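>> received
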Amino acid sequence: LLFRTGNDNEICCIVKHAFLEYYNQRKYYEKILISDVVCLFSYLMRGYEKYFVPGEVPLEFEIMQYLKKHYMDATLDSVAKHFNYSPAYFSRKIHTYTGVTFSEIIKNYRLEMACRLLRESKLKISQICEIIGYQNLEHFNRLFKDMYKETPSHYRKMNKKRK
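>> returned
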C-alpha cells in the first residue's frame, strides 16, 4: 500500500512512537505496537478514504499486478498499449506512482523470481535466465551481481546450506 502523507504530523508521531517502542522493547511493547498499527491505519483511512471506491481496484494496483504477472515478456510498448496509454505517458505515470522506472520494476520482478528459482529448484542457471525473460546469461549474471552483490551460483549455494 502506498499512502502519500506529506507532513501529516499525527501519522509521523505514530510511526516514530512505534519505532521507539520496538527499539526500546520495554514491558508490554508488543501490545503498544499493535495499538499503534491500529491507530496508524485508522488515521490513514480517515485521511484517504475519499480516494477509494468500495469494490473498485485502483488502476495503479491493476498495472502493478499486470506487471508482476507478465514480467517475463513485458515491454513498455506492450503494457502501455494494454492499458491504452502512449508509451511516453505510461512511463511517466509509472515513475510518478512508484518512484522507479518501468525497466527497474521489470528487472526487480525478474530477479526476485530468479532468487526464488535458485532457492527452490534444481534448474540450471541458464534455464532460470531464460524462464525469467533474459536471453543473455552474462547480462543476467551482471544484473544479479549488481543487485545482490554475489553471483547466482553463490546465492544458490549459500541459500541451500540454510535449509
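>> The mean pLDDT is 85.
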